Amino acid sequence: PQALLDGFTQETGITVNYDTYSSNEELLAKLQAGASGYDVIVPSDYTVVILTKQGLLEEIDLGKIPNFKNIAEELKNPYFDPGNKYSVPYQWGTAALAINTEKVTQPITKWADIWNPEFEQQIVLLDDEREVLGMVLMTLGYDRNSTAPAQLEEAKQRFMELMPNIRLFDSDSPKTALLAGEVSLGLVWNGEAAIAHSENPAIAYVCPQEGCSIWYDNLAIPKGALHVANAHLFIDYVLRPEVSLLITAEFPYSNPNAAALELLKTQDPAAYEAYMGYEATNPPLDWQPRMHPVMDVGEATILWDRIWTEVKGGE
Fold first, then answer.
1. Confidence band (pLDDT; 50, 70, 90) for 57?
2. pLDDT at residue 315 tops 80
3. Which helix H or strand E contains 95, and what residues bound it?
4. Which terminus of the chain is more exposed, N or C, with fewer CB under 10 A?
């Protein structure tokens, strides 16, 4: 949020130049090309693994980030970055199915249901190959992180069969088409579903039977960053409870900052109840066995990229 950037500049005199990218793949490409000019980046879990392997991250000095203590214990020391050597939690969440229940009256319990021809031109999907192809693989009963060429080829055919139902791909604001009534359902980020639900309570958010993804976005410092000390200052600032709440207010994803949630509980009990009570911000316990992380697919990335490009390009 702009208020966060302004607050940091006001306090430190450090100007923040803010840039956006629409996917982890785009971020990777920028960093692999070298000299991105970034001091702080926000890679997801599997991207932290790739960047670490490729030596593209600076080690983080947690001694310079005292507010790291505010992060919930269960979200420290994650599987993708043991000891938080290269990353610090920023937000987490899911990518699952948002449904406008005023327009879709029959119950939708499985991803497979969205292939129904009655949803022609009624679906929005994230413009994100790992989320979309992962979902398609799950409908076939395969691992969402499959690297098997035969399974991926089958997923390609299955994805092509879904294309007539897809109105658009949008990672930045999939809620827009949902709220405008242009689409009835779609694969969206949890924070987008939360905003849509606050504007139209008929928008439900479900983790279908085959499963949904769980992701963790992180703050990290790219190798060769020119302002490493300032980057640490900025990360520590973001982890302050009151600053962390600014982020949740504007981008209502799940907040890993336990101190921030405690602060919200005392400052605004109604907002806290809403956060805890909606599936998008606080996934129910019964979702947990069905929430699968997106993992690095290694060499198979080339195959994933090719299938994605071919299907979207109509080949």
1. very high
2. no
3. strand 88-100
4. C
Instruction: Using alpha carbons, select from 6, 210, 178 the residue that is nearest to residue 100.
Output: 178
Hey, is 22 helix, strand or coil? coil
Look up residue 295 and give its amino acid.
M
- Residue 188: C-alpha distances to residues 120, 176, 244, 290 (Å): 18, 11, 23, 16
Phi first, then psi: what are they for 43, rounded to 5°? -85, 150
3-state secondary structure 183-241: CCEEEEEHHHHHHHHHHCCCEEEECCCCCEEEEEEEEECECCCCCHHHHHHHHHHHCCH
Q: How far apart are CA 217 and CA 257, in angstroms?
A: 13
Q: 19: closest CA among 44, 37, 7, 46?
A: 37
Helix (H, G, I), strand (E, B) or coil at 111: helix
C-alpha to C-alpha distance for 23 and 302, rounded to whole angstroms:
16
d(C-alpha 154, C-alpha 243), whole Å: 46
Distance between first and last Cα of the chain: 39
Token pair in block for residue 178: 């949902």
Amino acid at 94: T
Amino acid at 62: L
Spatial contact of 91 and 249, defined as CB atoms under 8 Å apart: no
Query: Using alpha carbons only, how large is the chain's radius of gyration in Å?
Result: 20
The DSSP 8-state label assigned to residue 41 in this structure reads B
Looking at the DSSP bridge assignments, the partners of residue 215 are 93
pLDDT tens-place string over residues 122-152: 999 999 999 999 999 999 999 999 999 999 9
Identify the structural domains of the chain with CATH numbers, from first to last.
2-92+215-279 (3.40.190.10), 93-214+287-312 (3.40.190.10)
pTM: 0.91
